[in-house]
Specification:
Layout (H helix, E strand, L loop, with lengths): L2 H30 L5 H5 L8 H4 L3 H21 L11 E2 L4 E2 L2 E2 L3 H7 L8 H24 L6 H26 L12 H5 L6 H18 L14 H15 L2 H13 L23 E5 L12 H5 L20 E2 L1 H5 L7 H5 E4 L6 E4 L17 E5 H15 L5 H12 L13 H15 L6 H7 L3 H14 L29 H6 L10
Length: 516
């Protein structure tokens, strides 16, 4: 059902690349021909596709929007570096592979909280996130004056504003105060004048965009539009914002609307969530679309996550895997006995001399000639919404009704016994149970680090994890990144990432976060 959507995304990603190159050349031309006449600079060749003559029809705007959808693929293909990998859930394979640590020693420094502001994964994330925001703003700018059907324009705007809110929400959790961009940056002067906005301003803009999206998005799509942003996805985004901000009543309202919409339910089998033959199922609120094949729209999660040296055993394709996002011993031990999710989520590779577990949720490659797979990436799903609702209610007051119902439905699906008020007699014990359930239910879906930070548990949990990891490592690190006093020495400053060095070099108004 989503093949046409994927094909359009592929086409639009290629066009977006052309536009990006055109904008670079245009800026260079301004610098080179600054002294030329205004008349010369005003000439726009009609036989070239540019921003000025592209944004004309409803189809043009939809193609630009699909380019934004395509950009989300780039984000989720690397988000695990700064999200799951930052937590106690995963680490990096340290088997030396051509002198590197699991494909790149910077990941080891990130894992041990030793990273610096020149870390490539942090700079790449900044570029991906602000590139996505830029694409939203440019399209919204032209959409504002477009002569197209008003209802279609509202639907286009709602999807674009969802993505703008989504990216700003990631940015503010990565870096704290960040530039808030709700208009295109149209000149070099504007670009070099950008400053970091307070988080309160950024969050208000996120809420405004999310509320607009909720008011103008449909509950569902049909046919080739399945996979687009729905009202439920926008409510999930807003609920996560409210939960992060400690506005539990507001979060509860959004989550009640999701659950009361009757659009979603748990699948009977946990494994079916990650089956590529079962994409966009009833538990899925939003997932990033990928498609195996030659169109360039396939994913490669298992090829990133498989251990070093596992080619031909874990993966079929021609390339070696770098062992990123490797489950820690602490994560594997977090599963209760008889939890059916464990064998679906992790698998064991008996490698000599360093056997290890690896993420198994996305192990669906089928092509021995190419390192590409069909797996979608789950962003929001119904089990997440249920556990969020249980948490939001419990944070307001301990209750034995709905919170236990939400928690136990997730547990029973995993083959675990229900928990009762006798097991969890107060708010604190229920809070801990939710944290545990979220960890194992949503493992390797990029929720754990954000959960630890927003609940105020990051320093406590990572400090304890670091002590345990140094005493009994998941994998013994090589000498060039051996554990030391600075390893896992997490402080309040380390709850956000450093602003990338290149941003500081380019813009004198950009300031660095404390501690970097």
């Amino acid at each position: 059902m989503v093949s046409i959507l994927i094909f359009k995304i592929s086409v639009m990603k290629k066009y977006s690349s052309i536009l990006k190159s055109s904008r670079i050349l245009f800026i260079v031309s301004i610098l080179v021909f600054l002294g030329c006449s205004e008349e010369f600079l005003d000439v726009t060749p009609n036989h070239y596709l540019t921003e000025g003559n592209f944004y004309q029809t409803e189809e043009d705007f939809d193609q630009a929007l699909l380019g934004v959808y395509g950009g989300l693929q780039d984000y989720v293909l690397s988000a695990h570096f700064l999200e799951e990998g930052r937590s106690d859930n995963t680490t990096y394979d340290n088997l030396l592979d051509q002198g590197s640590l699991g494909g790149g020693r910077q990941y080891g420094f990130l894992d041990q909280f030793k990273m610096t502001s020149d870390a490539g994964p942090i700079s790449d994330a900044w570029n991906n996130i602000y590139g996505g925001i830029k694409d939203c703003n440019v399209t919204l700018f032209y959409l504002n004056n477009a002569e197209i059907n008003a209802d279609s324009a509202k639907l286009l705007e709602a999807q674009l504003r969802f993505f703008r809110a989504f990216y700003h929400f990631v940015a503010v959790r990565y870096w704290g105060d960040v530039p808030l961009l709700v208009e295109p940056v149209s000149s070099a002067e504007d670009a070099f004048a950008l400053r970091r906005n307070p988080t309160t301003e950024v969050y208000q803009a996120i809420v405004d965009d999310a509320e607009f999206a909720i008011s103008n998005l449909p509950l569902t799509y049909t046919g080739n539009d399945v996979g687009r942003i729905t009202r439920g996805a926008a409510r999930m985004l807003l609920a996560k914002v409210y939960l992060t901000r400690g506005e539990y009543g507001n979060a509860q309202n959004q989550l009640n609307s999701i659950i009361g919409s009757n659009q979603y339910d748990l699948l009977d089998e946990y494994s079916d969530i990650f089956d590529p033959a079962n994409k966009n199922h009833k538990e899925s609120i939003f997932e990033v679309q990928f498609k195996e094949g030659q169109e360039g729209e396939s994913s490669n999660f298992i090829y990133q996550f498989a251990p070093v040296g596992s080619r031909g055993v874990v993966v079929l394709g021609p390339e070696s895997s770098p062992g990123r996002n490797i489950p820690t011993k602490d994560m594997v031990e977090a599963y209760e006995p008889n939890d059916e999710r464990k064998d679906i989520s992790v698998a064991y590779f008996d490698r000599n001399p360093s056997p290890l577990y690896y993420v198994n949720k996305y192990n669906n490659d089928t092509d021995p000639d190419f390192s590409r797979s069909p797996d979608n990436w789950p962003v929001y799903r119904y089990a997440d919404a249920m556990l969020m609702l249980a948490e939001a209610i419990n944070e307001q007051s301990y209750q034995t009704g709905t919170p236990f119902t939400m928690l136990n439905r997730v547990r029973v699906r995993a083959g675990l016994p229900e928990l009762t008020p006798t097991d969890l007699p107060d708010q604190a014990s229920f809070r801990n149970a939710i944290a545990q359930e979220r960890r194992v239910e949503l493992a390797f879906e990029n929720h754990r680090w954000f959960d630890l930070v927003r609940t105020g548990k990051a320093i406590e949990v990572i400090t304890a994890y670091g002590i345990k990891e140094k005493a009994d490592p998941t994998l013994v690190p090589p000498d060039f990144i051996a554990f030391g006093p600075e390893s896992f020495a997490i402080t309040q400053d380390k709850l956000v990432y450093p602003i990338p060095n290149n941003e500081l070099d380019l813009n004198p108004n950009m300031t660095q976060n404390p501690g970097y």
